[in-house]
Fold ATP phosphoribosyltransferase.
Amino acid sequence: MTITLALPSKGRMKDDASAIFERAGMKIVAVGNDRSYRGRVEGWDDVEVAFLSASEISREVGSGAVDFGVTGEDLVREGLADADGRVEFVARLGFGQADVVVAVPEIWYDVDTMADLGDVAADFRARHGRRLAIATKYWRLTQQFFSGSHGIQLYRIVESLGATEGAPASGSADIIVDITSTGSTLRANHLKILSDGVILRSEACLVRARKPAHADDPTVDRIIAAVRGAL
Ligand SMILES: Nc1ncnc2c1ncn2[C@@H]1O[C@H](COP(=O)(O)OP(=O)(O)OP(=O)(O)O)[C@@H](O)[C@H]1O
Ligand SMILES: O=P(O)(O)OC[C@H]1O[C@H](OP(=O)(O)OP(=O)(O)O)[C@H](O)[C@@H]1O
């Protein structure tokens, strides 16, 4: 069976992803010209490479349209309702680290924990006449964390597709859930992370679609062993 491997076609994970496979003895070469969205692996004739964006990769591995992919854990857990049922996290690759966090304005002096935030959310409507608004593009992770893990039900998600950290200052939301790596964007926007507000510590992962046909496919095992051996 031909195995399809999806790699980032652009963005911050592209170069590190190719480098890991090269170290694993799987040199990726583009088919056709450099801008082609298909590739192959030198010496591995039963593997095809598809170059896609990081969020497309989580979707395509989740649906089983590709067999393996390299993408961020955050995108997999945000993009798929039953991530662990649909995909196996085969290896954490040691790059693309970023935390998905809950951050509130620094001047909320009394709010340092999710429990404090729960108290704020409970009083919010009485004080302000509306629910606490959370700006994020991670609505699934936010709901799981707020409603599932912390029992906070009184909030509203404001979908944000960019410049999320600016939402509290602009008035479009009260707090945010977003990704951070160095923390400098949060600091620049006078936001602080709650002490128990790290929802997920994400990094780039090799993920595999859970497919019955993989059980007796030697190429699947070879790919897993090669990548794990390169870490
Ligand atoms: N500082 C950072 N900001 C945002 N994402 C980061 C950061 N550091 C690592 N990442 C990770 O990088 C991945 C997103 O990569 P990138 O932004 O390159 O994707 P993209 O090409 O924009 O994808 P798409 O167009 O599908 O959104 C996510 O898994 C994210 O966790
Ligand atoms: O903690 P820091 O190191 O400041 O990084 C966090 C910021 O980096 C990302 O934005 P980026 O400008 O890279 O653009 P993107 O949202 O398009 O990925 C992310 O959305 C945060 O805003």
In short: Residues 10-13, 53-56, 72, 74-75, 96, 98, 179, 181, 202 surround adenosine-5'-triphosphate (ligand 1) (CB under 6 Å). The CA atoms of residues 66 and 168 lie 39 Å apart. The longest helix spans residues 114-128. The chain has a mean pLDDT of 96.
